Every structure is written in structure tokens, then in C-alpha cells.
Amino acid sequence: MSQETxxxxxxxxxxxxxxxxxxxxxxxxxxxxxxxxxxxxVVLYKNLGIDNATLAFWTSILYLxxxxxxxxxxxxxxxxxxxxxxxxxQLLMVVCLxxxxxxxxxxxxFFLSWIGFAIAAxxxxxxxxxxxxFYLLVLDQKAQxxxxxxxxxxxxxxxLFGSGLLVFLAGQLEHQTGAKLAWxxxxxxxAFVFFILWIVHTFILSEPxxxxxxxxxxxxxxxxxxxxxxxxxxVGAVLAFILLYRLGEAMLVKLAAPFLLDAPEVGGMGxxxxxxxxxxxxxxxxxxxxxxxxxxxFVSRYGVKRTLFPLAIALNLPHLFYVYLAYQSPAIxxxxxxxxxxxxxxxxxxxxxxxxxxLLATDSYKTSHFAISTSVMALGMMLPxxxxxxxxxxxxxxxxxxxxVALSIVGMIPLLWIxxxxxxx
Length: 425
Known about the structure:
single chain; 425 residues; mainly alpha; 0% strand; disordered N terminus
């Protein structure tokens, strides 16, 4: 019996057909707070008059809980079951999102709502650890590879719901009610959705039999988790790969929506909030979802070794489209089309990356090892984002997007050195 099984739960693998009942809803629940905190908040603050440097810096800090969640992920291993963590966090998320919505009506809305988003980020990062642990424990490796497309699909549907439907709705309402009341109404919607998810998961997620005896101490588990992770072969190359793979995307992501919203006089596209909801949220998220499903199928069919580099190209090459948009300012149907293709490539590019991170999780500490990998990934998104707004304001959009392209090339270099001998064909 592995240590994780001994002290976490007797969470045995289940028949793959039953995963269809929980993988979609769990990963929708994982994606929704992530997109609210890291994407929707950007459009919200832009609409409420916050400048690019400020919103990019403070919304990038919101990545921090995902970057450091490995510090408390062993708690998810040691105390209670994954199911209990999941349902309790989802109830707390209802309260948190409701508080964020109401805070937008107050004079100190930026500070108060940012605190609310920070709490939501902490809850979401912890929920991710519990959901990923549940997924890794109850499905075998073949099923994990197969369902990576399904989990990505519903994660992307959550992004479509957030950055598409909610942003579009806010754009429609702001003309009638004003921006603050529009966003209060919009943020209350996902609070209600989380209430429904809490009810659903309370009933459909099975409670594993916990084994309370002979659990090691937190310090023992934490030390063992860290040592076993950092003793893997070529750990430096692995960490560089995780940290840098999305470097270009990390620099771009906080400025994509402001670029579309900014007036042409300052180098933007001059789109309305509703148009951004359609371009980057709706069409882009649909393309992102399709790319994730297709990418998952490619990885399942051909394996990580043969797909990692081609899918990395698919992720990074479309960043050139933003260079074109910044120089040419084409008609809106071109903007819709190019953003859609860029998001499709992003969906493709993250599939093999996600599976590789799963394969780094060893049998003894799957949940905690995967949490460490995704923490490093979040750090790779947070650090470039912190400076992206300042860099964009200094360079202007045209030179900024050329920098994004250059950083995308840098981010692919660690692919040359990561160990693939443990990766199945």
C-alpha cells in the first residue's frame, strides 16, 4: 500500500464510465473561479476606470495562491477526504462571490473587491488540489489521458461562461444600469451557479472510506513530498519547462482584453465590452474548448513524446496575430477570426503540457506532486503578469506584442532538455 493510500483515503479506482458523472461538473467548478479571478476581473476593473499597469499588477498577484498552494496541499492529503474539501469550499465560494458583488457598490470598491478575489483565489487553488487529487486517484493513467480532453472541455466551458457570457451580459447591462450595478448583477450569477454545484456534488460525489489510524505527521509528509519531487531526474530542466512553457502567454494574457477595449488613439482596437465578450470570451472560448478536446485526443492517440513539441508550436505561433492587429487595426470580423484561431492554438498547446504534469506525479504522492507542478506553472503566469502592464505602457502595444513573440520562443527552449524516458508512448 502506498503512503498516500495509507493516510489519505482508500480511494480506489472506479470504472471509467462513472467518471462521466463527476469529471464535467468538477472541472467546470474548477474553471469558473479561475476565470473570474484572473480574466473577468481584468475587464471589470478596466470598465470601472482602473489603468492597465494597476490592473495588470494587482490581478497578477491574484495568481499567488495557485503558485504557493503546494505549501498547504499536504493538508488535503492528511485531513478529511477529497470530497469533503470540495463540497465545503464550494459553499464558501457562494459566500465569497456574493461579497465581491456587493462590494462593487461601495466607494472603496477596488480594495474590497480585490480582497474578495484574493480569498476566492485561495479557495479555488485549494479546491483545485482536492479535485486533481480525486481525479488522479480514481482514474488509471489511460483514463486520465482520455479524460484530459473532457476535463479541459468543461474547464473551457467555465471560461466561456465567465469571459464570454458574463462579460457580454455586463456589456449589455452597463448601458441601462451603469457599470457598477451591471457588474454587481453579473458577479451574483456565478455565486448562484456555485450554490447549484454545491448541491450537485453533495449528492453525486461518493465519500471514500477514510483510514484514521497510523497517519504520519504533517512535517513528515511535507518533507517526504518535497524530497521525492525534487529528487526526480533532471528536475532543473523540468522546473524550467513548467515555469517557461507559457511565458509568452503569461505576458500577453492580462493585456489582451485591455488591448481590445482601448481606444484606437492609444493603440487599441476600440471594441465595446459586449464585443470583447463575443470575441475573446465567446468565440475565443469555444475555439479554446475545441482545441483542448482535439489536443487531448492527439495526446491520447499519439502520446506525449510525439505531440509535445508540435502542440507547443500551436500554442505560441498565433501570438503573431496580435502583432498584426496592433499594426493594421483590421475590420472587426478579422479581429474575431484571429482571436478565435489564437485561442484554438492555446487549447491545443496546453493539452500535452497538462498530461506531462500528471505524469510527473508519482504513485506515493500524486495529489501533492501535481500541486507542486501546477504551483510552478502558476508562478510562471504570475511573475510576467506583474510587469506586463508597466512594460506595455512603456513600449506601446506594437513593440509589446513583438516582445511577447520573442518570449514565446524563449519559453520553448527547455523542451530540448526535459526527460521523456518516463513518459509512455
